[in-house]
Sequence to fold (130 residues):
Amino acid sequence: MSAHPIIDGPSVDSPDASLYHHRWLVVDEAARFVGVSQAPTLPDLGLSLAHGCLVLKAPGMLRLDVVLDVIEDDASVRMQAQFDDQSLDVIDEGELVAAWFSNYLGTPCRLVKVHPDQAPPDRAPLGHAS
Fold:
């Protein structure tokens, strides 16, 4: 089955892909969604699911593995992110991941995961295709 783990990112074909559809999004420094209109290379990422990780590859970048199912109980990494008119409870994936995405996309940003207690957005953001 095919799914888009990162909103506006590439699709992934995997038996477990649907479990991770729209679970991550890239946000700016104000925690607002950054989509393909602001980051046109986002869909060009090499993305796969392997060994319990979301595996990211990009030209000129080291491979990055983000653990899929970590339940983070540290309140310091929880935040609210804005996705169109929706506020989402999310978990920040950390400084290393933020640095990787900021370098790849050429703008300060962070990768956040929709908290497991909240349903991910069931659609692409306004004006975007899923």
